[in-house]
Amino acid sequence: VDCALRFVPSPFRAPNPPPMFFAVYFVEMESYLNDNFGGVKSKNSSEEALRRWRKLCSVVKNPKRRFRFTANLSKRSEAEAMKKTNQIGADELGSIVEGHDVKKLKMHGGVDGIANKLSTSTTNGLTTTEDRLKRRQEIYGINKFTESKVRSFWVFVWEALQDTTLIILAACAFISLVVGIVMEGWPKGAHDGLGIVASILLVVFVTATSDYRQSLQFKDLDKEKKKISIQVTRDGFRQKISIYDLVPGDIVHLSIGDQVPADGLFISGYSLLINESSLTGESEPVCVNAEYPFLLSGTKVQDGSCKMLVTTVGMRTQWGKLLATLSEGGDDETPLQVKLNGVATIIGKIGLFFAVITFAVLAQRLFSRKYHDDLLLSWSGDDALEMLEFFAIAVTIVVVAVPEGLPLAVTLSLAFAMKKMMNDKALVRHLAACETMGSATTICSDKTGTLTTNHMTVVKACICRNVMEVNSSEKVDNLSSYVPDSARKTLLQSIFNNTGGEVVTNHDGKLEILGTPTETALLELGLSLGGDFQAQRQETKLVKVEPFNSIKKRMGVVLQLSEGGYRAHCKGASEIILAACDNYVDPSGNVAPLDEAALNHLKSTIDSFAGEALRTLCLAYKEIGDNFSAKDEISFKGYTCIGIVGIKDPVRPGVKESVATCRAAGITVRMVTGDNINTAKAIARECGILTDEGVAIEGPEFREKNLEELMKLIPKIQVALVILLIYLLLRVK
């Protein structure tokens, strides 16, 4: 009715207008709506009509909720534009991967169809210019997650005030101030109360200042930590870029241990197993292949390697959406904080109990005296002051009972410890962590990359029973002169095909080696022997790959040779590969049976290399005939040993001094590694970890011990060759 009255001319706007006017003007209003908004139908309305209707309804309370079931015109027009240009929208890409929608993927033409719509090549990657990358980021977003805001200084002040001891002290300070001022006046009566308040404020501000400064430093540290490089193919070149620079359409290379940097689709790869426990909680790895090509951000490559087409980045990924729903949890209290709070509570209760008893006894004595004097109903100002004095005595008992200096002493000592650790370039996020770290009695350290620099080079090699140093170009040339051409060809074929690394040409036209430090060291040896990576790859066809993992301690490939037949190459831990060999390549380049003399020579070479703190790898091959398919398993026996290489990983500077400092402080340092036991012993001695009284032990030997033997053995263990040993060690402790 109100709407209708707006169309009624003012002369007719009576309190009770005649019904005929309503009929006339309702008809007029209906014709007006039909003329202007007649195109708005329940279904299949034109975009122009919808936009006119939206413009009229632009000022609406809660528009997102009220129009949640209506068409999103901006996204509809964007989708139409995408269809015309044969492109695909960010939401559509996200729904394919997140929903594992095979049917929708096939509708878009599979992985190749998605790549085509993203204007990329599965072999050469994106064609990049600054404008094109910027345009992609505008359409699909950037590969960054929304970070939580930096907490202000006053938030840390508020958190510091939540300490139980400080709350009790604050209550005591308030009571002391009130009673003191009433009894002795200002300012004399406020001295005790203000002293407690000053102590509380000092504790709070020291704690808050330290925590706030550390939070800012950790924010910067987190930024540095997240600057992860990933290998991609762009403009036909394989190169390293920051994960922040990834855009949909990039071709990413993943190998074992890598974290998937964005949502994407599997292009090609071998034996790919993905650990999705961070998203789903399932510990069973997921096999990803051409039939099930979906890769999710935040998951990890447990086994295998692959090429991935990036489809969704940043907050549109499933990992980004999960992060958006999570809220930061509170920190647990440290053991010292728990004990201090417990002590403060107990002391407070005991003090309060005796304060109440004292007040009750004194008050009872006053009441008894007045009762005997028949003055129980007659109270003077002196009696009120006497009662107030009794109350002051009770409060004094509570105040004295709670040690206000204890929190201050603990906070200052921990702040001093934090400052010292910062000088040693060790950042501590919370003051209380210094207390926890101060309780450590054992440090279990990895070897590669922690005690060593993780920059590896091949310094010795035993090829065709010729042991030579290869740590310079002259010595490599010397090795080449001793190795027959047939053996050299097989060696280069093994190095360049049985690898997870790659030799690429960068934008400057120079060769660049990509891969793990171990792979890089072997590829450098192959190049120094005059090998051509691309030429070797083109001579054969890669049929099957079994990537390296820490359980098998080996890697294998099967190649289809140009002259016909198949050949398997294998490399890995020297003892394991050598045990699978029946033959070896002799000094003349011929294949000879691995008799006892040759076996002892190779074993002594392995021990000699390990004794010099070198990591040893054995390379072997075998012919497997003409009947082999990618579905068949690679048999692990009957191999021919090509040679053994010794890889040097230098000890990190300052490690020996740090180990000595820990030992002087009563902290035992133990080394954990999966390397050869002799190599581990040599490096442990070089670091100062393994002493004459210490023990280096392997997993099988450890597991054979009974509990009584373990109790005697564990304190002496300084080098452990299995991760499981640490778990058992901690359980027995």
What are the key terms here?
22 strands, 733 residues, flat, Calcium-transporting ATPase, cytoplasmic domain N, 7-stranded antiparallel beta sheet, 9-stranded mixed beta sheet, disordered N terminus, alpha+beta, disordered C terminus
State the shape. flat
Helix fraction?
A: 40-55%
* CATH topology name of the domain at 457-648: Calcium-transporting ATPase, cytoplasmic domain N
| Biggest sheet character | 9 strands, mixed
Strand proportion: 15-25%
Radius of gyration: 38 Å
CATH class type of the domain at 457-648: Alpha Beta
Distance between the termini: 84 Å
Number of helices: 30
Overall mean pLDDT stands at 79
Number of strands: 22
The CATH architecture of the domain at 457-648 can be named as 3-Layer(aba) Sandwich
Please state the structural category: alpha+beta
Unreliable spans are: 1-8, 723-733
CATH-wise, what's the superfamily of the domain at 457-648?
Calcium-transporting ATPase, cytoplasmic domain N
Tell me what you see in this structure:
- The longest helix has 38 residues, at 335-372.
- Residues 1-8 and 723-733 have low confidence and may be disordered.
- Among the domains are: 148-227; 331-424, no CATH class; 457-648, 3-Layer(aba) Sandwich (Calcium-transporting ATPase, cytoplasmic domain N), CATH 3.40.1110; 655-732, HAD superfamily/HAD-like (Rossmann fold, 3-Layer(aba) Sandwich), CATH 3.40.50.
- The strands form four sheets. Strands 9, 10, 13, 14, 15, 16, 17, 18 and 19 form a nine-stranded mixed β-sheet that branches.
- 48% of the residues lie in helices and 18% in strands.
